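Recall the central idea of this unit: under ordinary conditions, the amino acid sequence of a chain determines the structure it adopts. In this exercise we apply that idea directly, starting from the sequence alone.
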Amino acid sequence: MYDLNCIVTFCTKAARPSRRYCSGHAEQVRQGKKLTPIAHRPHAKHRRPLSLRVSPEQRFRQIGWSISPTGCWLWNGTMRGNGYGSFTLASGQRVGAHRFAVYLDTGVMPAPHQHVAHACDNPRCVNPAHLSAGSALANMQDMADKGRSAWGEKNANAKLTIDDVRAILMRSATGETSPAIAADYPVSARYVRSIVAGERWQTALRVSA
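Accordingly, the structure predicted from this sequence is:
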């Protein structure tokens, strides 16, 4: 449902989505009469849905969750490709549903540098009893302890193997340029430079050494 009120000052009559005026004022506009619109009032189709005008806390609970046998609260709203729930704030910014669940429980939104770990290992879960906010390092350690770290070839999106990375490093050490190396792999020259600079694949290299 959308706010489709006529844009004329003090008019509370409804306007169709394709119009900016109610039927009466639309007829006056067709007759050439000048009307006084509400200042800066956007066209109906650009207005924010009423569902976003309630508080974020209310809307989060309205979307809700389903409780699994394991006690997880499975988010009923929008899901991201990585398995995490997504929630839209009144500002239009999207945040992880699990992060907003922490805010509802503690009153403090996790800072951008803080990662929210799931004790249940279920990214869809928004049960605050299963969530804890901490540093990225702590969260990575938690993932490693549970065997869920997706580094190197374990990452489903990896385009290189550990042998490819070693070969890239050897070729770079001999003076070969990044564009020339990248031409032989499904990655960019910038990606090659990041490997050479030690910004990527370091964990995989250490583990496989």
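The first helix runs from residue 23 to 30.
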